[in-house]
Amino acid sequence: MKKYFLLICTLCMITACNQKTGKARQDNVPEQDSTSLSDEGLRSLYTDWKVIDQKDYTIRYPKDWMRKTDVEGSEFFIYSPQTDADDQFRENISLVTENLKGTGYDLDQYVKAALKMLQENIIESKRIQRAGRDCQMVVYTQNFPEKFTTKNELYIWVKNGKAYMLAFSYVIADDNPAQSAGREILRTFVLK
Questions:
Q1: What average pLDDT does range 153-157 have in this prediction?
Q2: What share of the chain is helix, strand, coil (3-state, %, to 5)?
Q3: Would you tell me the crossing angle of helices 2-16 and 107-118 to the nearest 10 degrees?
Q4: I need a labelling partner for 165 at 20 to 30 A (CA). Which of 2, 28, 101, 134 fits?
Q5: Residues 119-133: pLDDT tens digits?
Q6: How far is CA 50 from CA 23, 42, 46, 125, 151, in A?
Q7: Cα(78)–Cα(184) distance, integer angstroms
Q8: Which of these ranges, 20-24, 40-44, 86-90, 118-122, has the smallest mean pLDDT?
């Protein structure tokens, strides 16, 4: 478990290295997921979006975002478009899964172990309903001295002996349009 959780944190950091700076800001945007919508409702809302449809989950993303599946240890990364020549950080959504069969981990135990690894950087951690089931939402920051700070929204589920860690990483900035798009992508994630 520790290996995969550290992997997602490391992947977020690697993605962020050598990026532009931004001013700190707190977002208080209420979030909802799309589980109350039917498949038809989702298709009508996101008609021009691409879909990743796997046996145990689906997620949708705008056609101008780029999907990458060859990042070791992850199911996928979805990167925001580059906004200009100076924009070296691409906000991203990632999914890492871990087989927990034989470990005895349930959601509470998995989250407890995960939080130990992020203690000093956690802004918020709470149990919520997302993607049609209970999950743990963990919001934490990563500081890159003299460069920028990223904010990371991590959602953790455990279902049928498998952990799912869906993360959204972005530079904290007043003028970051990828924040709202990223949150909209998160809303479309559904566990089957």
A1: 97
A2: 25, 35, 40
A3: 50
A4: 28
A5: 778 999 999 998 889
A6: 31, 12, 8, 30, 25
A7: 13
A8: 20-24
Residues 6+ apart with CB under 8 A from 178: 80, 83, 91, 170
In which element (H, E) is residue 14 found? helix 2-16
What are 60's two structure tokens? Answer: 């949708």
Asked if pLDDT for residue 175 goes beyond 90, the answer is no
Amino acid 30: pLDDT: 37
Which residue in 152, 126, 105 sits closest to 11, CA to CA?
A: 152
Using alpha carbons, list the distances in angstroms from residue 74 to 6, 35, 128, 160.
12, 24, 23, 19
Instruction: Using alpha carbons, select from 111, 106, 110 the residue that is nearest to residue 161.
Output: 106
pTM of structure: 0.79
Find out whether 152 and 12 touch, Cβ atoms under 8 Å. yes
Nearest to 130 by CA among 30, 7, 18, 16: 30
In terms of DSSP bridges, do strands 190-191 and 57-62 run parallel, antiparallel, or are they unpaired? Answer: antiparallel
Instruction: Please answer whether residues 130 and 33 qualify as being in contact, where contact means their C-beta atoms are separated by less than 8 angstroms.
Output: yes
Question: How does strand 162-171 pair with strand 190-191?
Answer: unpaired
Q: What is the DSSP string of 118-156?
A: HGGGEEEEEEEEETTEEEEEEEEEEEETTTEEEEEEEEE
